[in-house]
Amino acid sequence: xxxxxxxxxxxxxxxxxxxxxxxxxxxxxxxxxxxxxxxxxxxxxxxxxxxxxxxxxxxxxxxxxxxxxxxxxxxxxxxxxxxxxxxxxxxxxxxxxxxxxxxxxxxxxxxxxxxxxxxxxxxxxxxxxxxxxxxxxxxxxxxxxxxxxxxxxxxxxxxxxxxxxxxxxxxxxxxxxxxxxxxxxxxxxxxxxxxxxxxxxxxxxxxxxxxxxxxxxxxxxxxxxxxxxxxxxxxxxxxx
Length: 240
Known about the structure:
This protein has eight helices and eight strands, in the order ααααββαββαββαβαβ. The chain is α+β, with helices and mostly antiparallel strands. Strand 1 (83-90) and strand 2 form a beta hairpin. The model is unreliable at 1-6 (pLDDT under 50).
């Protein structure tokens, strides 16, 4: 199929380097705890928890860590009450940003995010100021060790929007409603491990910058991702 995988670089994740692994796992654990507190501790009975667990598994978070996060939330051992907050704004060159956070201190998070934008020459906007630029999409990436035709037909028959081979992986894009069906169909077809499996946001318009401008934008991305309260950073910088 013709298609695009540019969303995969626009919604960029840091590599799980040894020094970054602990922070990544802490953020994933927080997401799991929030989802577990909001419903059943069984991922099969809690769609939000299933998403959080799938995301953690794709980042190679150990099963014991995942289970401990669920038990901590459902056992009431964690006293923090996290709330979801989204910040919208613009970085260098008019690049649009959506920053999703989980925090137990709204004032702290707002101050840190605002400071990151200000220091990078950007600014925060009002709710809805850039969210219209992004669309909710399912992001599924699996190894190309599986038969390409079988995986393609399985994904498309289950409702996938796009299937593409990128390097040594198959990249599958879905809409929000078909994401679970496609994921489950791939598992039933024999997929044991996902390189990525989550709902994300994809820009429907992009901003193109020169190398210097890209560097400034990516510096802001790094700064935001380093904040403990920030879970995900979405932006519409054109990758090439």
